[in-house]
Amino acid sequence: VQLQASGGGLVQAGDSLRLSCAASGRTFSNYDMAWYRQAPGKQREWVARISNGGSPNYAGSVEGRFTISRDNAKRTGYLQMNSLKPEDTAVYYCKIAGSWGQGTQVTVSS
């Protein structure tokens, strides 16, 4: 499956962003989808996951601020990020069926 992530940018603390992950090549609706992030000098960490049935799970650091969703008809997943903090600054990656998107940079200034 090929993935195209988008929606990153430079925002201030407290702002919101919505990331998108467009998929092609396989039946999107069959697979769970996840978002990960990697901050400079740190290991890639899991952020959120949504099952093929639509059940979400979140890392504790983003619970209550981030919302993962999917639109199977559009073969696209989303990560709505609210109340952003400087520590959310990272490259965000989507993952489906073992394939990774290219990443999109999110920078949150204080």
What this model shows, in words?
The chain has strands spanning 2-6, 9-12, 17-24, 33-38, 45-50, 56-58, 66-71, 76-81, 90-96, 99-100, 104-109. The radius of gyration is 13 Å and the shape is globular. By secondary structure, the chain is mostly beta strands.
Keywords:
mainly beta; single chain; 110 residues; four-stranded antiparallel sheet; seven-stranded mixed sheet
Quaternary state of the chains: single chain
What's the gyration radius in Å?
13 Å
Overall pLDDT level: 95
Spans of at least 5 consecutive residues with low confidence: none
Query: How large is the count of helical segments?
Result: 0
| Strand coverage percent | over 45%
Secondary-structure-derived class: mainly beta
Fraction of residues in helices? under 10%
Shape field: globular
- First-residue to last-residue Cα separation: 37 Å
Order of helices and strands: EEEEEEEEEEE
Which sheet architecture does the biggest sheet show?
7 strands, mixed
Could you give the count of β-strands? Answer: 11
Question: How would you summarize the topology of this molecule?
Answer:
Elements lengths: L1 E5 L2 E4 L4 E8 L8 E6 L6 E6 L5 E3 L7 E6 L4 E6 L8 E7 L2 E2 L3 E6 L1
Parallel strand pairs: 2-11
Antiparallel strand pairs: 1-3, 3-8, 4-5, 4-9, 5-6, 7-8, 9-10, 9-11
